[in-house]
Design a protein that fits this description.
Number of helices: 10
Order of helices and strands: EEHEHHEHEHEHEHHEEEHEH
CATH architecture: Alpha-Beta Barrel
Radius of gyration: 19 Å
Distance between the termini: 15 Å
Shape: globular
Number of strands: 11
Helix content: 40-55%
Strand content: 5-15%
Largest sheet: 9 strands, parallel
CATH class: Alpha Beta
CATH topology: TIM Barrel
Structural class: alpha/beta
Length: 298
């Protein structure tokens, strides 16, 4: 197993020119290409026209995993959407979709399924809501464990919501009480909530299964904003040093970084063309900068 953190950038099942995007990421010295695996019927209908079945989506996924690995890159993580943790035990169709993705992920030697942790306004939740969330995640963790998988839920911490502090996350993780249930630790969410990122890494160390790297300034509801990796209030090099100190060797996935105005190309682009995406030069610079930080901490 690699003894250092790995540079990653994701693609989606519905991505056109998939092999060219993978080649671009390889040129940018990525180690891994996580995939957004749209397992729910609503997501499939949104992105595929006509909608495809679970089995058809799985076949597309297998082909994309092959493309990634044939290029010499790795894939340990897939993202399977968010929200199901609040409802899955009441929704048989969600249970079917979830069991399906666990089976397919295990077959492809995936290690981690990334989910979104439901995070409604705190005022709309009570002890019953929290108890239900815990039971749902215990069930999902047990199903994942049977396939040799870990769950990494994107950490909330939005102000005014049920998960708005590190203590809230600790409460949930402790209550679920499953070794394979942990976090996608997001620098941006932690910093924008006014928490100290290095301290949060140390406090949540045993639950950090994957990492989203963001650079931000300010806080939620005030002056919070995304910044390029080299310009903001988070000491990224020190944060990576702390991750190294706790023994983290998983993926570092940069996200939500703004485009550099000088990098916008006037001609139509074949790669990185979806609304809200960075352009190729911005993405290449961001991955290169993060690679430098990885190298700097050893």
């Amino acid at each position: 197993m690699s003894q250092r953190m790995e540079l990653a950038y994701p693609l989606e099942l519905f991505r056109q020119n998939f092999d060219r995007h993978v080649a671009f990421l390889k040129e940018c010295t990525a180690d891994q290409v996580p995939l957004y695996y749209t397992c729910s019927s609503g997501e499939r209908e949104r992105y595929f026209k006509p909608a495809v079945t679970l089995d058809q989506a799985a076949e597309l996924f297998r082909g994309q995993v092959r493309t990634i690995r044939d290029s010499g890159l790795r894939i340990d993580v897939i993202y399977a959407g968010g929200g199901i943790g609040a409802t899955i035990l009441d929704r048989p169709e969600q249970q079917e979709e979830y069991r399906h993705i666990c089976r397919v992920a295990s077959e492809q030697q995936i290690k981690i399924i990334g989910l979104g942790l439901p995070n409604p306004p705190r005022a709309s939740t009570d002890a019953t809501w929290f108890d239900t969330l815990v039971r749902n995640y215990q069930w999902m963790s047990d199903v994942a464990a049977a396939s040799g998988l870990k769950l990494a839920s994107h950490c909330g911490t939005d102000c005014g919501r049920r998960f708005c502090t590190i203590a809230d996350l600790e409460e949930w993780l402790t209550r679920v009480n499953r070794d394979n249930n942990g976090l996608t630790f997001c620098f941006g969410n932690i910093a924008l909530a006014g928490e100290d990122v290095p301290a949060a890494i140390r406090r949540l160390a045993r639950w950090i299964f994957s990492v989203h790297v963001r650079q931000t300034a300010g806080t939620f509801g005030k002056t919070g904003e995304e910044r390029p990796l080299h310009s903001g209030e988070i000491d990224l090099r020190y944060c990576l040093k702390v991750l190294s100190e706790i023994g983290y060797t998983g993926i570092l996935h940069p996200e939500h970084f703004p485009r550099f105005a000088t990098a916008l190309a006037p001609e139509p682009r074949d790669l990185w063309y979806l609304a809200g995406e960075p352009d190729g030069p911005t993405l290449a610079w961001t991955l290169g900068y993060l690679r430098g930080l990885i190298n700097a901490v050893g």
